[in-house]
Amino acid sequence: MMFLHVFCYQLKNLFRKKYIIGWNLLFPLVLATAFYIGFGHMVTKDPNAFQTIAAGYAEVQSVSGIPEEGTESGNAEIFLKILEQLQTEGGKNMIDLTRYHSEKEAREALLDGQIEGYYLNEGGTLSLHIREEGVNSTILSQILKQYRSACTMAEQVAEDHPSRLLQTIAGLSVNRRYLEEYTPGRQISPYLQFFFALLAMSSMYASWIATAMMESMCANLSECGKRFESSGAGRFPSILAGALAGTTFQIVSNAITVLYVEYVLRISFQAPFPEIMMIMGLGSAVGIGFGILFGTLFQGEALRVAIPLTFSMVSSFLSGLMMGQMKQLVENAVPVLNRINPAAVFTDSLYVLASYGKNRQYWLDVLSMVGMVIVTLSISAVILRRRRYASI
Amino acid sequence: MRETCVQVNSLVKRYGEFVAVDHFSLNVGKGEILGLLGPNGSGKTTTINCILALLSYDRGSITIFGENMTPERYDIKRRIGVVPQNVAVMDSLTVEENIDFFCGLYVKNRSSRRACVRDALAFTGLTDCRKQKPKKLSGGLLRRLNIACGIAHKPELIFFDEPTVAVDPQSRNAILEGIRKMNQNGTTIVYTSHYMEEVEKLCTRIVIMDHGKGVAEGTAASLKAGLRNRETIRIHMPVRQEEVLRAIREVNHVYHVQAEDEDIVIRCDGGEHNLVHILNVLEEKRAVFGRVTTELPTLNDVFLEITGKELRE
Q1: What are the chain A neighbours of B55 within 8 Å (beta carbons)?
Q2: pLDDT higher for B302 or B278?
Q3: What percent of chain B has pLDDT over 70?
Q4: Domain residues of chain A, as ranges?
Q5: Which among A291, A292, A285, A284 has a CA at the least distance from the CA of A309?
Q6: Comparing C-alpha atoms, which of B230, B227, B234, B274 is closest to residue B250?
Q7: What is the reported pTM?
Q8: What is the dihedral of CA A155, A156, A161, A163, to 10 degrees?
């Protein structure tokens, strides 16, 4: 109850502080607009235009001539219809589909380089055959995965609500927009890096929120802090409630920035919104963690302003906020800096998510950020534990 | 004998070589208003901060309600209220929200808290400006808000640290009256100030501090009873005549005559009608003088006699 009380009031407090609204919400929007004016067209035009993929489809009967149990049995026709839809939908071709009478023909076409891959319907069992790993093969694979996922859903419906089965089968489709925008493995515009760094800066600004919050809770930092620490509220639950309020505020602020960039400036981050927001949430928590650490370590008023500000700007600069190649330069000169710089890890996770999906590097970045939150909060907790001030 | 609320034994607090509190001891009985009086820098606030477990200290022990006070004793802290020397409120919250926020750190139940906030608003006379932000309040109202935030949860023991600094006389009287009412309702109060008149009017017992030490303790009357000075007579005399001063020194019960700017200050150690006798001397010597005032001893005289300096220095 006390936790909720502190959380609600800290959140209210943050939403009413003009300088927090200015720096944490409006400044990223202004900077995003400046980036858009400066090189927005380079992001929207460059390598994002979707290329039509040449694909094949072939059918062969199974040895028995009967569809195998537990396969897409019989519904492969629906899959073919979906492929045809993808070929003609919306006036631009996602795939250029060729039907082959035998697998041999399809394989020859694949080896000749006429197609990027072919789907084989073998007695109702669908499989994908590709020439080489790459972006296009990933997209073809995604189409099949989405179809299978939809089939699983249809089977569930058949089991639970048989009356709705026909309706569900009729609605089986592959989300074209999803594939177009979020298929991993695509090359993304180098200019998008600036926007990733902008989001990193915005998240690191959360450190500023945390030091402001710590100021109102620590007796050595303010009069309010003296009142707070002499009250009956536990130190750690209060600070955690404040940290959660700060993270919530920053997530909302980041969500507004992402939506503004995506829907007003119409620059796609090349990844689904919920997944971007998960990273944003984690980035905000990292910013808050560092802010709490700064608030714990530094007592001077000037330091409490200067340190989070310097931290946010320097870490964002090193992650490529003002110079696109900066992260690469750091990687060449002092690679460890890119591993410990929270803004660099943050931009890397977004870049990897947009380019390759949730691969090993993505999860490493996520784990790094989780680690940073744990380390900063743990150090702060050790310092704050049983702390009685020598002077206030 | 009164139950002890706060007990401080031989407290020592050093800042490097500087000794801020020097073997200071204090007992606060339940239901009393204890005044901690001393000039700025005498160690009053440091002592309060040590008692509240905000500051570490070098030696001594502190118990509150019979229990050792440490930073983790939230059970004890929940029974205490603090009104710090400087205004400690959140600028972005309204008056009512500020009181509710700080009250909520002690009172979990929402409806009880609402009642506490309403009472605190009424008690400090802030009901009409409950929707205003602190920036819009005058200095006096801001001080009242500072008090409301410290007392809303109805604590058993309240520390007021110089609550009337920079407050207009009207608000000051309202604050002192409020504190008196709280005490009448059973709250124990520790009141620090360097305004001797306030302490004299308000407190049931007074401890005088200087250089971190307790230099005197007792009721205002008992402290003054121990003084040699029983009356101070001040005469405006721009043209000073040594012969007149010598004659005044000869008057019975006059023990000290001192020139202060254009005044002469005469201190008497007892007797009656001292002023009449002195005026007779002035008439005899045909001295030219203006305004004449007479004062009974104050706590400043107590401080002066013990430390050799004025309390306001």
Answers
A1: 388-392
A2: B278
A3: 98
A4: 2-46+189-384, 53-182
A5: A291
A6: B274
A7: 0.73
A8: -20
Strand partners, B37: B193, B208
pLDDT tens per residue, range B155-202? 999 999 988 887 788 878 888 988 999 999 999 999 998 888 888 889
Residue B205 has a pLDDT of 94
Taking the Cβ of residue A35 and every Cβ of chain B, the question of whether any pair is shorter than 8 Å is answered with no
For chain A, say whether B49 makes contact (Cβ under 8 Å): yes
Q: Which class is domain B231-296?
A: alpha beta
The phi and psi torsions of B196 (rounded to 5 degrees) equal -65, -30
Q: Which amino acid is at B250?
A: E
Dump pLDDT digits (tens) for B23-69. Answer: 999 999 999 999 999 888 899 999 999 999 999 999 999 999 999 99
* DSSP notation for B239-264: S--HHHHHHHHTSTTEEEEEEETTEE
B135 touches chain A (CB under 8 A): no
Number of helices (H), then strands (E), belonging to chain B: the values are: 11, 14
- Interchain contact, A17 vs B92, CB within 8 Å: yes
- B4-224 against B231-296: fold identical: no
pLDDT digits (tens, 9 = 90+) for B278-296: 999 999 988 889 999 998 8
Q: Which fold has domain B4-224?
A: Rossmann fold (3.40.50)
Q: Which helix (H) or strand (E) holds A362?
A: helix A360-384
The pLDDT-based confidence of A162 (bands split at 50, 70, 90) is: low
* Chain A interface includes B106 (CB < 8 A): yes
Are B71 and A388 in contact (CB < 8 Å)?
A: yes
pLDDT > 60? residue A184: no
**Beta bridge pairs of residue B224:** none
- Rounded to whole angstroms, the Cα distance separating B246 from B266 reads 12
CA distance B225 to B270: 11
Residue A331 tokens, joined: 């990687």
Query: Distances from the Cα of B231 to the Cαs of B134, B222, B251, in angstroms?
Result: 45, 16, 14
Q: The complex's ipTM?
A: 0.81
CATH architecture, domain A53-182: 3-Layer(aba) Sandwich (3.40)
Instruction: Specify whether the CB–CB gap between B311 and B196 falls below 8 A.
Output: yes
**In 3-state terms, what secondary structure has residue A319?**
coil
- Find the residue in A nearest to B98 (Cα): A9
